[in-house]
């Protein structure tokens, strides 16, 4: 097998990568040894800042194919006709753990999709849950700090977690999902994905509806029992990465069916709760799932760092026909994700191949900065101009929307935090699932201070008295060493 010629970063051939150049057999290394300096200096800079959240992840590539006509709702080009295929990239992840942490942690899973459409990249950046812990993004830094390490001990801290959770009861719905069976998916191929937020669809007639996105897994949902997840964390911490990569490599391509829920603006204005509240779901009996298409993952990354570590998703990356909603959490993420990528990857992160909108042409007035790959040659770098520079298009206009009320800091801590968790307990979970939910919570909560345990029991009792009673009894047994 023929081998390639070894070169330095400048492309010049190298004579050795086994011996440094020294002054004599035992002398010091010479500064002129570019061979060594080039090699070690790049090594010193191999790591970029890891993501603050979703640091541990896996990725794959594939396509989305439209199977049902939804042009009555949106003018987005990727949905323009049945049978249309759009290339895409997906990144799955845990949320709280560092890069290299166990894939089988009890944690929400990130579910981010980048559609490379002819109108630019559209990023649908969600999770494997349709809800989240908080509804106001001002809490996000504090919440994530409780998922990380104690600043003194540098250890996970149950007091931090349960102190925040019990002081903010809007977290109850997501906490119940987290400690249920679905809190530890069996890899990434056997879980649903959700856009989670509410978005706006706009059609060719400038009519709009509110939508939620659901990726329903075609392989069926599978979860890992808590004891098996703990075992895998020690024996195969890269379980989910291995499972996804190997499945695609052998041609067992995972797929998901995309469905949407649709709500008119009139329905939103008269609905029983704030439809833009990320801690709640839209009832399926009132807003049934509408089929849209299928997502298939059929190609593994060629290089993990280039294709997975450097891929950058942002909810603000939208295309004509998709617009934001007043969801406060979405509004916060519209800023935060791009800001993170500029920090991690640099101002020109969208010029990296995995992030580049290759299905269209980028034409704007952004220039220069670190690692400018496509600097748009000699095109005008100012606007307006008289020399053929790109012009705005009415096609990209967002619909105007009314705004009422005073600018203020509105409290949302008492926006009915227990009705939907109560429905989850009563109508979704069976007897055995409720038992495991209680045991999973108690197994973690027992590590927190007693007053936090009591506050948690009080909150969960508001979900359902049986829930609080069962949790209290299970904690007592743990405290007495009987479990």
Describe this structure in words.
The protein has helices spanning 34-43, 140-147, 158-167, 172-178, 226-235, 239-249, 265-269, 304-309, 328-344, 419-428, 431-445, 450-463, 465-479; strands spanning 57-66, 85-94, 109-117, 120-127, 193-194, 199-202, 208-217, 255-263, 290-299, 322-324. The chain contains 13 helices and 10 strands. Strands 1, 2, 3, 4, 5, 6, 7, 8, 9 and 10 form a 10-stranded antiparallel beta sheet that branches. It is an alpha+beta fold and 483 residues long. The mean pLDDT is 96. It is globular and about 80 Å long. α3 crosses α12 and α12 runs antiparallel to α13. The longest helix is centred in the last third of the chain and has 17 residues, at 328-344. Helix content is 29%, strand content 16%.
How would you concisely characterize the structure shown here?
Strands 1, 2, 3, 4, 5, 6, 7, 8, 9 and 10 form a ten-stranded antiparallel β-sheet that branches. Helix 2 (140-147) runs antiparallel to helix 3 (158-167), helix 3 packs across helix 12 (450-463) and helix 12 (450-463) runs antiparallel to helix 13 (465-479). Helix content is 29%, strand content 16%.
Give keywords:
ten-stranded antiparallel beta sheet; alpha+beta; 483 residues; 16% strand
Q: From the helix content, strand content and strand pairing, which structural class follows?
A: alpha+beta
DSSP helix fraction: 25-40%
| Number of DSSP helical runs | 13
Q: Summarize the main sheet.
A: 10 strands, antiparallel
Shape label: globular
Mean pLDDT: 96
Q: C-alpha Rg, in Å?
A: 25 Å
- End-to-end Cα distance: 61 Å
